UniProtKB/TrEMBL annotation:
Keywords: ATP-binding, Kinase, Magnesium, Metal-binding, Nucleotide-binding, Pyruvate, Transferase. This is Pyruvate, phosphate dikinase. Mg(2+) binds at residues 767, 791. Its EC number is 2.7.9.1. Residues 421-503 form the PEP-utilising enzyme mobile domain.
Length: 902
């Protein structure tokens, strides 16, 4: 570590581009200072200082001296010293990571107050109640955050004080009441920690700084990072800022503002304001707020100044800004700005609005939306004509239609969710400790708080449906019930429906309708329709740009004409995976497969194959018609044959009962023998895929003949079929060469018999590690590769997906071994490395080798970016994920171009 490394920066030294070093909050405080906005003076301890602290267990050797130097400058600038007796300088110590993590890490306000300085603050301010209110906040916040005291103990003491006063509002507590409460709080600290509340202001500040560093690895912060896929090694900065007070009286207050509505994206005045309060009161939702527009009536001067600053910040950042501010006796102070979290609908609308304003171009608009947000827009919505009983209404904090059983705490939400129940988490207000329950729930409902409360901000960030501030609902978490204004009691386990778009709360299950975005993709809405405030039009414009920018083609995994037609409507450019085994699942066809499996001579086998041939041909005709002019990749039969036979236990019972009746069934006996013969300890690694084609003569030949004859018939009818034949589970080039020879013979026979020349590519799936490693050899016999990343992930990791996801994946995710399931997002280091190797070796052998992926990773946003980087030609996924893949393929292209230009 260089001795000259700088760990502390004044707000006058940084800028918004130093988020890696100063965190988002510190970088933006510096940027606002540079812009000449009214920011209280302060300084930032860097993320590098945090990393050293967490790695070594001690702060960097030079840090204390640097903090002292910046504190001295701050004291000189303010003309007062930290915690001095007569007119104390007070500071806040606040976390600030590179990426916004609302409420997940620690903050302590009013540092510098003590038994002595609280008297000086009362005299200086002329407001004794304010001074003691600030002190009780410090003891409460410091006790919980820094000293680890159970926060419920402070809340219970506060509730008892209000109850004794006969009020539910903490503003009704007098200075004397608050003095008593401070003494109670200090006694709690002493009892729970074995030490008195620290009176030395510098000790308070140093301990608070260490607590913020530690909070980076707190349970809720780690959980939030896993949910949002934020790296664990970034660390947090710490911001030490001069306190300004919104709790000095009715001419003071605090608020949170957005330059546009973060729920809908609509321009206007959006936010919450609380008179005579500190900032944590707004975010915590402990009192219901005023709408920001009402500030104009209370303090027009501050309101006008705030509106001008908001406009300036939005133009400067070219995006929706989330702003925290305090008014201290008529003086406006800016405490934070950041790019605001928003709902999926707001993200698309705002991106297009900013393009129309000339602030960003369409590339930047595409960069600012995600496939995950598009997927959220495709969720169903409540039917507007629903007759369900409305039991309340709050603020529409985060849209969506959520239905579930009411639960009143996070533990129950997680427990019931893991048991397969859909739940709605109901709280008076949420706090950061509720994060795991919020993740588990379908939606969140609170009786307190506004659009900027903890519940609203976190729900929007996660894409969860949320209704806040439903005041007419009385939530009693201890008795596990919720009471409506009409006296109706909703118990835990009762079903409610919440509409995050309107704020309405219903008893029971409300019918749902398709999303208008889905209707747009289905073709039942035209692109110019002004649906939901122009949402569909915004989606159309961004999707059109994504399609124009992307290099990756997007195909569908589809096994029948209905799926193929839907996929085409959703923008598919062909079928990347047709699983022929799905064509044999009907009762009639299963019988024919049974005949094939039971055949013990060539004549019976050929009879069974000749019966299946026209059925397969009909299947392929429908697919080629639905995808006329586009490629259709048909995977030959892949699963173990025992999957087409009756269950061994059921069949054994049937045979035993028949023998007991002395009426044995000859066919059942033969089936049971076949089932026993084909039984495998691990069928996914047994007789399947190419091995079937080699062991059962004529099986693959029949399928290839059906494909070729269907293509020839379609072509003779004026169509443009473009089939491709894919051989599954190949591990060595010799397997592929043998099957390819048979396929070529069949194709030649069909060409002669139909008089139609067909150009049908023959390729393989790369789904075994050996195939990936020997891809150069396999490419000698393959015209295309399609990566089967589901099986490749299983074979690389040694996981049986059906077993491990239910057994230990939850523990692996909780312990941080996985950031996300490797079946959900491709494992770049393991599976991804094999894909890249296979791409390189395959194209070295055959430069024109076509490359795609057909596992469900093809529709995962992060994985699409990897496949773009790896040089694949297309991804293939289920029809409903096609729009997401199209969007992310466009984003991958512009991000690669941006990286190349840099």
């Amino acid at each position: 570590m260089a001795a000259t490394q700088k760990f502390v920066y004044s707000f006058t030294e940084g800028n918004k581009d130093l988020k890696d070093l100063l965190g988002g909050k510190g970088a933006n405080l510096a940027e606002m200072t540079n812009l000449g906005l009214p920011v209280p003076p302060g300084f930032t301890l860097t993320t590098e200082a945090c990393k050293v602290f967490l790695e070594t267990g001690a702060e960097p050797a030079s840090l204390k001296a640097e903090v002292s130097e910046h504190l001295d400058r701050l004291e000189q600038q303010m003309g007062k010293k930290l915690g001095q007796a007569d007119d104390p300088l007070l500071v806040s110590v606040r976390s600030g990571a590179k990426f916004s993590m609302p409420g997940m890490m620690d903050t302590v306000l009013n540092i510098g107050l003590s038994d002595t300085s609280v008297v000086g603050l009362a005299a200086q301010s002329g407001n004794e109640r304010f001074a003691w209110d600030s002190y009780r906040r410090l003891v409460q916040m410091f006790g919980k955050t820094v000293l680890g005291v159970d926060g419920e103990l402070f809340e219970e003491a506060l509730d008892e004080a209000k109850h004794a006063k006969g009020t539910a509002n903490d503003l009704d507590l007098t200075a004397e009441d608050l003095k008593t409460l401070v003494a109670t709080f200090k006694a709690i600290v002493a009892r729970e920690t074995g030490r008195d509340f620290p009176q030395d202001p510098r000790e308070q500040m140093d301990l608070a700084i260490h607590a913020v560093f530690h909070s980076w690895n707190g349970d809720r912060a780690r959980l939030y990072r896993r949910q949002e896929r934020i790296p664990n090694d970034l660390g947090t900065a710490v911001n030490v800022c001069t306190m300004v007070f919104g709790n000095l009286g009715e001419d003071s207050g605090t608020g949170v503002a957005f330059t546009r509505d973060p729920s809908t994206g609509a321009p206007g005045v959006y936010g919450d304001y609380l008179s005579n309060a500190q900032g944590e009161d707004v975010v915590a939702g402990i009192r219901n707020t005023l709408q920001l527009a009402e500030l104009e009536q209370l303090d027009k001067k501050s309101y006008d100044e705030l509106m001008a600053i908001m406009h300036k910040l939005e133009l400067h950042y070219r995006d929706l800004c989330d702003i925290e501010f305090t008014i201290e006796r008529g003086k406006l102070w800016m405490l934070q700005t950041r790019i605001g979290k928003r709902t999926a609908a707001a993200a698309f609308r705002i991106a297009v609005q900013l393009v129309d304003q000339g602030l960003i171009d369409l590339d930047e608009a595409l960069h600012r939306v995600t496939g995950g947000q598009l997927a959220q827009l495709m969720f169903p919505r409540f039917a507007p004509e629903a007759t369900s009983k409305q039991i309340g209404r709050g603020l529409a904090a985060s849209p969506g239609a959520a239905i579930g059983k009411v639960v009143f705490d996070s533990y129950t939400a997680v427990k019931w969710s893991r048991s397969g129940e859909k739940v709605i988490l109901v709280r008076r207000e949420t706090n950061p400790d509720d994060l795991d329950g919020m993740i588990a729930a379908e939606g969140i409902l609170t009786s307190r708080g506004g659009k900027t409360s903890h519940a609203a901000v976190v729900a929007r960030g996660m894409g969860k449906t949320c209704v806040c501030g439903a005041e007419e609902l009385e939530v009693d978490t201890k008795r596990r019930k919720m009471t409506t204004a009409a006296g109706l009691v909703i118990e835990e386990g009762d079903i409610v429906s919440i509409d995050g778009g309107t704020g309405k709360v219903y008893l029971g299950e409300v019918p749902v309708l398709p999303s208008p975005v889905v209707e747009y993709f289905e073709g039942t809405l035209h692109a110019g329709a002004d649906v939901q405030g122009g949402l569909v039009q915004a989606v159309h414009r961004i999707m059109s740009h994504a399609d124009g920018r992307r290099r990756l083609a997007v195909r569908a995994n589809a096994d029948n004409a209905d799926d193929a037609n839907r996929a085409r409507r959703y923008g598919a450019q062909g079928i990347g995976l047709c699983r022929t085994e799905h064509m044999f699942l009907g009762e009639e066809r299963r019988k024919e497969v049974e005949h094939l499996i039971l055949a013990d001579n060539d004549k019976d086998r050929e009879l069974a194959l000749s019966t299946l041939l026209p059925l397969q041909k009909g299947d392929f005709l429908e697919l080629f018609q639905a995808m006329d002019g586009l490629p259709v990749t048909v995977r030959l039969l892949d699963p173990p044959l025992h999957e087409f036979l009756p269950d061994i236990t059921e069949l054994s019972v049937r045979v035993a009962l028949a023998e007991a009746r002395k009426d044995p069934n000859e066919n059942d006996l033969r089936l049971l023998q076949a089932v026993h013969k084909l039984h495998e300890a691990n069928p996914m690694l047994g007789l399947r895929g190419v091995r079937l084609g080699l062991v059962i003569p004529g099986l693959f030949g029949m399928q290839v003949r059906a494909i070729a004859e269907a293509a020839a018939e379609r072509k003779l009818a004026g169509g443009d079929p473009r089939p491709e034949v894919m051989i599954p589970l190949v591990g060595t080039v010799q397997e592929l060469e043998i099957v390819r020879e048979e396929c070529e013979r069949v194709l030649a026979e069909v060409a002669v018999s139909t008089g139609v020349q067909l150009d049908i590519k023959l390729g393989t799936m790369i789904e075994l590690p050996r195939a990936a490693v020997t891809a150069g050899q396999i490419a000698e016999a393959a015209e295309f590769f399609s990566f089967g990343t589901n099986d490749l992930t299983q074979t690389v990791w040694g996981f049986s997906r059906d077993d491990v996801e239910a057994s230990f994946f939850t523990a692996y995710l909780e312990k941080g071994i996985f950031g996300v399931s490797p079946f959900e997002t491709i494992d770049r280091d393991g599976v991804g490395a094999l894909v890249k190797h296979a791409v390189k070796e395959g194209r070295a052998t055959r430069p024109d080798l076509k490359l795609g992926v057909c596992g469900e990773h093809g529709g995962d946003p992060d994985s699409v970016h990897f496949f773009h980087e790896a040089g694949l030609d297309y991804v293939s996924c289920s029809p409903f994920r096609i729009p997401v893949a199209r969007l992310e393929a466009g984003r991958a292209a512009i991000e690669t171009a941006g990286s190349d230009s840099r």
